Amino acid sequence: MTQHFLSGFFEPKSVVVFGASERPGAVGMLVFQNMLESFQGKVYAINSKHSQIQGQPAFPNLDALDEPVDLAVIATPAAGVPGIIEQCGVHGIKNAIILSAGFREAGPQGVRLERMLMENARRYNLRFIGPNCLGVMRPSVGLNATFNKGSARSGQLALVSQSGAICTAILDWAAAQDIGFSTVVSMGISADADFGEILDYLVNDPKTSSILLYIEGVHNARSFMSGLRAAARVKPVIAIKVGRHATGSKAVMSHTGALVGADDVFDTALSRAGVVRGTRITNLFSAATALTAGFRLQGERLAIITNGGGPGVMATDRAADLNIPLAELSTDVLAALNQFLPTTWSHSNPLDIIGDATPDRYAHALEICLKDDGVDGVMVILTPQAMTDPTGVAEEVARIAMAQKKPVFACWMGHVQVEPGREVLRNAGVPTYHTPETVVEAFAFLVAHYRNQNMLLQTPGAISRGDPPDAEGARMIIEGALSEGRTILSESESKAVLGAFHIRTAQAVVVHTPTEALVQAEIIGMPVALKVNSPDITHKSDVGGVRLGLSSAQAVRSAYLDLIETVKRNRPDARIEGLTVEPMLRRPNGREILVGITRDDLFGPVVTFGAGGTAVEALADRAVTLPPLNKDLAREVIGRTRIAKTLGKFRQIPPVHMESLEKVLLRVSEIACELPLVKELDINPLIVDETGAIAVDARIVVGYHSGTMRPYDHMAIHPYPHYLVSHWQLPDGTDVTIRPISPEDAKIGYTFVHNLSVRSKYFRFMQSLEDLTPAMLARFTQIDYDREMALIATVQQNGQEIEIGVTRYTTNPDGKTCEMAIVVADDWQRRGIGHHLLERLMSRARDYGLEVMEGNVIANNDDMLRMVERHGFAITEVPDDALIRRIHKQLR
């Protein structure tokens, strides 16, 4: 439970401002003024030309200041920033916020300055936010290290934005809406600290309950996804990503590559991380109002209460647009409503309780709906009609909503007459909006968060435990092609790779003469199909390179010659390496599907599913997802396509064998995980019917992988590392499983810590701790297997898995060292479990290139100190803290 390495940005005791100024409108003037007005710690000014700034002493440099400083804020011209970072490093300052512009956005000279800045920061292990940013706010401690005109009210909403202008707009709007912030971070160009690290801090920040992100680009996909997944596990995260239609230019070698744009991938990445995406800035405003109310949905069914039919229809239409189901009122609820509502009420949802609705009528309708188990949230609409009491209704709605866990949203339409009622609702914490559509959109954010939590919990393995593929054989086929200078596998090679992963394919034989074609057609059995075999032709049908339904010897030989002639005429530059002969599959109930892989520049391999056939681009019916997949995720991506509706019973056609289709998706996911050399893959068409699925045509594009040799380094989401699962036996015969932790271990992890003795808890967490909070459980179980590892030891007792020990390391920002911790259940101590866990943990750390393992141990934890000493750890005292011992081991 050591302090996060970014804590100095958000909880500093002292701050120095470089470039502090008195010049009106200057960045240095505004930021220093903001700090003086609100910061609860010490603030120092650095200015080489003046001895006093805004009534405070100014120092020419840090040598003259000669005081310890936690955080530097830099508001000087860009040319001097690398030198200032050097000065900070020499004086032991570990955190800096660089407001200065003029780096990579300023051309070659700026790029050189940024390189110097990075080199100096790394030399002293100094972390910084920026450059070219608005700055950072932490209202709870009065930190306003920005040049924004004004601060923010303290609250529980965090805002992280790559645009300073967006920050200022949201802050200005939030002030009028009385919305407060725990943290505001303007990232700038993110030359150092990026989204992933900021999110990693916020997930354990007790002052933050919800997070808003404004994203223009991401530098490190793995860090970004890790931070998002950890945060969204316990805190709603709303993200706006701009540049939705900037797909970039690339040479497209497959149908899959032609269909998938960068924004498709970003969207599915956010969903897999449990994050809700907005498309407009107004989405952030609506979401902020809903999030600050602290709602957590238990379902997605909405009830609408209104005193006007039109607004109810408007809300219903918007709910249908956003796939929000309206609650179906039970018979008992309808009967209860009939007892006091006019006979002319709508008798359905939306509940139109008529234009003369009194506060009492609204209250009864709201209370009855909230008690219905089939209702997960209620939207209350009021229009100011002649007999309406907007303020009285608001008082009743506020009274009821404050006593409920289910979310209640208000829409008081109009302005002058309803404003006092809106004020009542806002003061009660009821999210309040001006239009029905906006209310539904706000509720939709909560629904999307509810739905995405299931996506977040999925941590599939790279390879299924049963029936593993021949990944090594497939790899050899690919490496053979690359050694010949080829980047496109032949159809036969492509199908061989699919076969290695147990995907059923249609038989295909390469022939080079009309006679060979005839012989193979007779062996296979007519009718057959002929297809051109060329490494230069992506889409065979586009150049006349396919002949189907050939059912006689004469037709086969004639088609061979005609096909060759047609392709040469349409593509004279293409190399023709014969034709393939394939059986014509008789599948009258078959649906043509496309399943593929493409490679995103940021997020790595992407799995695609959709409608197949020759019109695949025209239909453009596809959905994408990030591997690894399991059955739940395979069903989810299938369900996002239009063709999914035809996979069930369709007119007189029986439903497809869905298990076979899901299996193909899982096997394609395995290819994406296990074969980083695969850049693109097309299975088009995959014919699926009631008997199963078969790949008729396949094409694979390959290329060398430029990443590290670490397992799954090419992927944005690290699969669950099944390969690290092992079994061990205690001397008394007890079977112990050692395996990586997973999100599903939250329950047994909670029980494990709860059952530890007070002494063991103190030795592990170095503080008094009764139980793990939900945020701590999420942080400990929802991990990034690439930069951290937690291994748990479990046994079976009474048919249940019990955790008896856990050890973990987390990689430090330097990428070379790691912090470790270990604890064993009291009843299982002194049986060798800790030794075995530590050996496995050190082995994993070495495999990932870590050089040093460190940790803190309570000085009187004799058992722990003896154990680590036996494993070669050096033990040293900690200056100024006699209660702690520092342990240290060189791993390499």
Number of strands: 37
- Overall pLDDT, averaged? 89
Counting H and I runs of at least 4 residues, what is the number of helices? 29
Shape: globular
Helix proportion range: 25-40%
Strand content: 15-25%
For the largest beta-sheet, the strand count, sense and barrel status come to:
8 strands, mixed
Distance between the termini: 26 Å
From the helix content, strand content and strand pairing, which structural class follows? alpha/beta
Rg measurement, Å: 32 Å
Instruction: Give the low-pLDDT segments.
Output: 246-261
- Across the major sheet, the strand order is 30-31-32-33-34-35-37-36
How would you describe this protein?
The chain is α/β, with parallel strands linked by helices. 36% of the residues lie in helices and 23% in strands. The chain has an 8-stranded mixed sheet, with helices on both faces. It has a 7-stranded mixed sheet with strand order 3-4-2-1-5-6-7, with helices on both faces. It has a 7-stranded mixed sheet with strand order 9-8-11-10-12-13-14, with helices on both faces. A hairpin with a 5-residue loop joins strand 33 and strand 34 (817-824). Helix 11 packs across helix 17 (436-457), helix 14 (359-371) runs parallel beside helix 15 (390-402) and helix 18 (471-483) packs antiparallel against helix 19 (491-500). The protein is globular, with a radius of gyration of 32 Å. The two termini are 26 Å apart.
